Amino acid sequence: MRKLIVIMTALLSMMAATAALAEEGMASYYADSLQGNSTASGEPYNKDELTAAHRTLEFGTRVKVTNLDNGKSVIVRINDRGPHAKSRIIDVSGAAAIKLGLLDSGTAKVSLEPL
Question: How far apart are CA 56 and CA 78, in angstroms?
Answer without folding.
Answer: 10
